[in-house]
Amino acid sequence: xxxxxxxxxxxxxxxxxxxxxxxxxxxxxxxxxxxxxxxxxxxxxxxxxxxxxxxxxxxxxxxxxxxxxxxxxxxxxxxxxxxxxxxxxxxxxxxxxxxxxxxxxxxxxxxxxxxxxxxxxxxxxxxxxxxxxxxxxxxxxxxxxxxxxxxxxxxxxxxxxxxxxxxxxxxxxxxxxxxxxxxxxxxxxxxxxxxxxxxxxxxxxxxxxxxxxxxxxxxxxxxxxxxxxxxxxxxxxxxxxxxxxxxxxxxxxxxxxxxxxxxxxxxxxxxxxxxxxxxxxxxxxxxxxxxxxxxxxxxxxxxxxxxxxxxxxxxxxxxxxxxxxxxxxxxxxxxxxxxxxxxxxxxxxxxxxxxxxxxxxx
Amino acid sequence: xxxxxxxxxxxxxxxxxxxxxxxxxxxxxxxxxxxxxxxxxxxxxxxxxxxxxxxxxxxxxxxxxxxxxxxxxxxxxxxxxxxxxxxxxxxxxxxxxxxxxxxxxxxxxxxxxxxxxxxxxxxxxxxxxxxxxxxxxxxxxxxxxxxxxxxxxxxxxxxxxxxxxxxxxxxxxxxxxxxxxxxxxxxxxxxxxxxxxxxxxxxxxxxxxxxxxxxxxxxxxxxxxxxxxxxxxxxxxxxxxxxxxxxxxxxxxxxxxxxxxxxxxxxxxxxxxxxxxxxxxxxxxxxxxxxxxxxxxxxxxxxxxxxxxxxxxxxxxxxxxxxxxxxxxxxxxxxxxxxxxxxxxxxxxxxxxxxxxxxxxxxxxxxxxxxxxxxxxxxxxxxxxxxxxxxxxxxxxxxx
Lengths: 362, 400
Fold this sequence. Notes:
Chain A has 362 residues and is an alpha/beta fold. Chain A contains ten helices and 16 strands. Chain B has a single domain (7-393), classed as Thiolase/Chalcone synthase (Peroxisomal Thiolase, Chain A, domain 1), CATH 3.40.47.10.
């Protein structure tokens, strides 16, 4: 059984919905917000791609969202947008699974909760804040609001969370466990991680682990896909042809013959400098972190962009920064796709790779 | 839904307050004693103390860990994994050219504490090192690095059902031909954050917990790890080894009722049990016993009792939480390991903490060591957020 992408929902610094993502692909821009982080050493200004979840009110009554954190709101909005895009808001397949991937979980809540733990009375905590910090909070709320009783999974595997989630989503559909899967990822703007990334840039003298390439602005957002098995695919984006993850040391990476690669380098990981040697010589390469930012579930946004590219029949212009060793192959302007496939490729400092291959044909 | 072929359990490991290995844990359960105590790993500024089940430091083999900065969760996991591999008779040489996946359930992927980062804004840290340690603290990656595992990898954070879900998903990797072997299980260490968090939710008992008891008022947290080495039939035949047991079926279901409160009708739990039974071909009447989730909270135990009475009437059950505490992400995995242990012993322990029948509960656990006949058992878990998981485990690779 093949796995088909019926709908995509995305929210991030570019806005909310696939149309907003497509617009930012066409213009090559997304607006940033200057955040101010108070630190013992004084305020620190950090530009970020922040997500606006007000569109969630179109799907869920605001009163019902009173105690829901920003992190969960992003996940809910991504899911509802994916369902809307798939024309499945009012009716879904009987058995639908939910898989939510996250790199850091609800970090803001978690870290704020920990600040409170240094007080005189350790037992005066907010139970709401604690429960919202639990890493399966987003998936749980998705099921509650959608009234979905199928299998539900939360995966927290840093920047390989998305590919790990897709692996299980594909398995659930191919084994007939479910008829559809709502799978995706969410990561929230994190003050602590933002300051870490700032330190990376400082340690590299204003550069990044990508040599000349400017590191990505810190981002937050959510991106979800409605996947189904064989069926009437009158509307949709294409097929998930391959999902692979493993150890770089003892696993061979099988890139398809006719393909282009969207790679997930954001400048903050030591392994980013490996991309030139890992991506095959004769394929085009593109990166889009300049539109959604640096965040662990960034691979999900790459998959969404790949889906949009397949539908448009072209690979959108990549980031203008060049990557040493890849500049000859960088997609510097919109490029027609010669049928074939698109690979989303992510390397991690843990010596792990993730690969998701999308194609027009099964 | 495709039937699930049995997956071989080649070996098991377990480390928790009850013991440093599977044999010690099983012996401890049958002794019927327990030793909850106030936490020693952290201090709390409060007049009320809530007992926990900590793993004593002398349960760890000295100099076992090459990386001194390894998180306690990773240490627990590695210790249990080493025991499981030894139990399976699998050496590093054996798996050198094998496809080895790692699928683990835990509360969080990395370290839960940001204290090394110098507070919530993280600017107290003088260098990148604390951040990079935080980012490298994933227990799955520790196992992957230790044994040069080829992948795939997955860290499941389904709260209390994570360990059981990891075993179920790991088994699917074997069935789908992705791996020759999977290190599957769960691990969680005791942290101040979760300790205080559960108290804030009024889910903790300030006395030793009493699962299913009329006077139960909450849970006691614990820590530990449970690991199963799952193996393909081909690899098992190559090694010419017998299986220790089998994962016959795995099911999961979601309450979709409320974020913190379980569905009073147990809808998600029923779906999980029914799926596990359907895909394994096991009739529920063939289940010899149930290793329940049994946390000691009023709602959890009531729901499980109702579901057992409705779906598995008359089948004896017990809870391990009175012996090992609620180990969160490790719970489902530790329970799966102990379930196989009980099958091998043909007896189940008394449900620690249970002394008084609750008239509201239609079914109650065993209050003394009970002999059981049968080669198949059910282990179930209910989780925060409405996740429910069920594993059907057996000593033979068939349905009965």
